[in-house]
Amino acid sequence: MFKWRLIWEHFKQMNPYIAFGSILFLAGMVIGGTNPAFRAFLDEQLKGLGQLAEMIDDSKNPTLTMMIFIFLNNAVKSILVMYLGALFGVLPFFFLVVNGMMIGYLLKTTAELHGGGYVMELIVKGLLPHGILEIPAIIFACAYGMRFGVLIFKAVGSLVFARSKTGNVSRELESFVVRTVPVMVILTITLLIAAVIESTITLWLLQM
Question: In terms of pTM, does the model score above 0.85?
Answer without folding.
Answer: yes
